[in-house]
Amino acid sequence: MSAKKPAEPSVESIARSERKRLAAEEGMRALADVERQAIEVRKNMARLREVREAKEAADEALRIALPPPKKRSRKPAR
Questions:
Q1: Is 45 inside a domain boundary?
Q2: Is residue 37 part of a domain?
């Protein structure tokens, strides 16, 4: 009742194992690519945050250096 395994793998089993190996390699490359892109995005976000914070600091310094705007008085309606 038990079937004896052949000594040599069949063509189908070789092809199946090759497809699995190629899929695993492609998956590893895809994960590495996603991780590389995530690192690039985080670096860009940090750069943009620094630029924004520098601009906000410069705007605040300018606001402090300039005199406050004069309030306009409204003329009464006729």
A1: yes
A2: yes
**Which amino acid belongs to residue 60?**
E
Across 17-44, b (16+ Cβ under 10 Å) vs e yields eeeeeeeeeeeeeeeeeeeeeeeeeeee
Write out the residue range of the structural domain in which residue 54 sits. 12-65
CA distance 46 to 34: 18
- Which one-letter amino acid corresponds to residue 20? K
> For residue 7, what is the DSSP state?
S
Q: Residue 1: inside a domain, yes or no?
A: no
Structurally, how many domains does the chain consist of?
1
**Structure confidence by residue, pLDDT tens digits, 22-38:** 999 999 999 999 999 99
pTM > 0.85: yes or no:
no
